[in-house]
Amino acid sequence: MGKGPGLYSDIGKKARDLLYKDYQSDHKFIITTYSPTGVVITSSGTKKGDLFLADVNTQLKNKNITTDIKVDTNSNLFTTITIDEAAPGLKTIFSFRVPDQRSGKVELQYLHDYAGISSSVGLTANPIVNFSGVIGNNLVALGTDLSFDSKTGNFTKCNAGLSFSNADLIAALTLNDKGDTLSASYYHSVNPQSNTAVGAEVTHSFSTNENTITLGTQHALDPLTTVKARVNNFGKANALIQHEWRPKSTFTISGEVDTRAIEKSAKVGLALALKP
């Protein structure tokens, strides 16, 4: 565990990664290359049914400044400039998208041993202001996540979260959607040597009175191969196997079946990530 409570987005992240990360039903590939001058170029493509989406991202680093420029198949140009450690614990992020002139945004992140703060504001006449803050330490953290639309004068997002961590267990409780959705998650590291872990998430919607329960696990068959599985109370079962066939390069096969409609074809996803 690191020092400090981290950012609000870190609350429940371990359980979310265990239950949802790397699962997909699409076909995806990612190729990363490095130039002698230190420029990193990442090309990715995703096939969703008959639709193919692609983008190319170029990353340049100069001391503590990182610039990311990405172009996608819709001719959108995304630019993100990140300045690390402008002051101790402070990160500044400036981002915008062309041709959307209203997409400009400035974000500040500050990490301390007993607090984590992230605040952003849109570069428009009537911006949306986001703020999230966490207080605590690496054992207990309490935080909130807010968004305010200055044009309408309304809060568009109001969330709160609580996290408890120790050496092998992380539990989190969050209240989202302006108090309409209550989620509790649990992550337990069973055997760090084999990367064996179990996790669960229970979500209750007050407006629909509906509960969603998701259980998952992961295990490393060997240092290069990991398997994961999850199931929810709606009968959806997922599994994946990921193999690192060369350093930093992985091949992932994932599948999903609906146990309540077993006659339907299973969904199969493939992902290939190549790095030199």
Protein described:
With 276 residues, the chain is mainly beta. The protein has one domain: Porin. The chain contains 1 helix and 19 strands. The chain has a 19-stranded mixed β-barrel. Strand 7 (105-112) and strand 8 form a beta hairpin. The longest helix is centred in the first third of the chain and has 8 residues, at 13-20. The protein is globular, with a radius of gyration of 21 Å. The mean pLDDT is 95. Keywords: Ion transport, Membrane, Porin, Transmembrane, Transmembrane beta strand, Transport.
Features:
mainly beta; globular; Porin; 276 residues
The number of domains? 1
Which strand-content bin applies to the residues? over 45%
For the biggest sheet, the summary is: 19 strands, mixed, barrel
The arrangement of helices and strands along the chain is HEEEEEEEEEEEEEEEEEEE
Strands, total number: 19
CATH superfamily: Porin
Instruction: Kindly report the oligomeric state of this protein.
Output: single chain
Q: Per CATH, what is the topology?
A: Porin
Which regions contain 5 or more consecutive residues with pLDDT less than 50? none
The secondary-structure class comes to mainly beta
Q: Count of helical segments?
A: 1
- What's the alpha carbon Rg, rounded to whole Å? 21 Å
Sum up the overall morphology in one term.
globular
Average per-residue pLDDT, rounded, comes to 95
Residues in helix, %: under 10%
The CATH class turns out to be: Mainly Beta
CATH architecture: Beta Barrel
Q: What distance lies between the first and last C-alpha atoms, to the nearest angstrom?
A: 30 Å
Main location: membrane
Keywords: Ion transport, Membrane, Porin, Transmembrane, Transmembrane beta strand, Transport
Subcellular location: Membrane
Family: Belongs to the eukaryotic mitochondrial porin (TC 1.B.8.1) family.
